[in-house]
Design a protein that fits this description.
The protein is of the alpha+beta class and 128 residues long. Helices cover 15% and strands 27% of the residues. The longest helix is centred in the N-terminal third of the chain and has 12 residues. The N and C termini lie far apart (40 Å).
């Protein structure tokens, strides 16, 4: 099965659909993104914009998520920046916190206000 993301005029992902492999194959039985896009446009309209995506990140680095963004400069899908202090890893196109998350087996959440206060704190342990 192939997955295709529909994009709006700002490259924001509107939806992701599953397309049968045979609906993405050319006359020689070779899967082609352009054939899959034509199939999606036949279903949803010729003026719709589509990009192929994959669960395992083999296509465009990350699986497209609704509300996420297709970054045409990097030919990659990425999520929306979660916090102002986080930066985009150019290799993975994933957002990273400015401070490494503790790896001590506890659960943490990011606190942007704590980080902005002194730039040394940010991860707050979740009390269960």
């Amino acid at each position: 099965m192939a997955h295709f993301a529909q994009l709006d005029e700002n490259n924001v992902v509107l939806q992701v659909i599953v397309v049968n492999n045979e609906d993405c194959q050319d006359d020689n039985g070779v899967e082609q993104e352009s054939v899959g896009i034509a199939f999606c446009q036949a279903l949803f309209g010729a003026d719709t914009v589509w990009k192929q995506t994959s669960y395992n990140g083999n296509i465009r680095k990350n699986y497209a998520g609704i509300g996420g963004v297709y970054d045409s400069a990097r030919d990659a899908f990425r999520g929306v920046q979660p916090y102002a202090s986080w930066t985009l890893d150019e290799t993975t196109c994933l957002w990273e916190a400015p401070i490494t998350k503790p790896n001590d087996g506890n659960i943490y959440r990011w606190d942007e206000d704590a980080y902005q206060a002194d730039n040394t704190a940010g991860w707050v342990q979740v009390q269960l």
